[in-house]
Design a protein that fits this description.
The chain has about 300 residues and is of the alpha/beta class. Helices cover about 45% and strands about 15% of the residues. The chain has a seven-stranded parallel beta sheet. The chain has a three-stranded antiparallel beta sheet with strand order 6-10-9. Bound molecules: flavin mononucleotide (FMN). Flavin mononucleotide (FMN) binds next to strand 2, strand 3, strand 6 and helix 9.
Length: about 300
Amino acid sequence: MAGAAGGLLAAAVSRAGGVGMIGVPSSPAEQWIDQQLEEVKSLSTPWGVGFMGWAVEDNPEPVEAFLSHGPAVVAISFGDPTRAAALAREAGALTAMQVGNTADLRRALQDDIDLVVCRGAEGGGHGRNEAGTLPLLQLAVSSTRKPVIAAGGIGTAHGVAAALAGGAQAVWVGTRFVTASEATGHRNIKVAINAAGLDDTVYTRAFDIAQQIPWAPEFGGRALANDFSDQWAHRIEELESVADEALRQRMVRARTEADVQMAPFYAGQAVAFSHEEQSAAQIMEDLAGYRAILADAARRFA
Ligand SMILES: Cc1cc2nc3c(=O)[nH]c(=O)nc-3n(C[C@H](O)[C@H](O)[C@H](O)COP(=O)(O)O)c2cc1C
């Protein structure tokens, strides 16, 4: 999760028994990469790193920088993963790709991807707004023997249990960790997400158009709805024609000031499940409740 999951959060998740993932922004500064690596490079537990595929297709330097410190998993999503996946494989990392429709799934079934991450439209941040997590998961587990990971809308132990019962080998959780104490991001973001409910997110390209970020049109983002998205989410063509440098600057300022009504606060429907700031270890402990839920289900339905 670029903007939320730096080395600190990834390390905390890894120490708590997960595989913490560093979310790399589209053009990371060298100094930023070094700072994140400082947090994870001496971990004795596995950690990983996720890239926006479109951003590393032509410039794999950030991939190489992380690979020299031994991530267990390298995720390349939302773009052609071929070049980055080859580098990751060569360095001995497992490769992962988030898939959001049948064509993505077909690509992820090629030999260079080890882990198929079914990322439903419920999820926070960028991705497709097509299939939901459960249909994608069912399709993937019936199509491959590769490990399948479920993502999108999973924020409680019951959600984890449902995904594992549905055939996932693991879950990939974003939104629930955006408000973790170790997550980066302004306090306003954490407060707003903790206060938000199931119906408070919107899937839109409006924020990217306003910021002139070159995401492909099929990858909008799910964020907290606010005044800006209320105004523009349903008038995308008009926004494209009026978006100018002044709007871009306003958006940059809004992000710096963490202006709740103007800036994008990326988060998915799992906002419904975070209510207070918790440490990553506490969140992991909450999610680990899936074991008791599955054991209970096994007793009831055996
Ligand atoms: C704040 C935020 C930032 C994200 N940034 C990235 C990113 O940089 N790269 C990426 O592959 N996915 C990113 N995602 C998407 C996640 O990898 C994942 O698909 C999503 O969080 C799963 O759904 P959930 O949010 O319901 O848990 C981001 C998600 C959030 C909430």
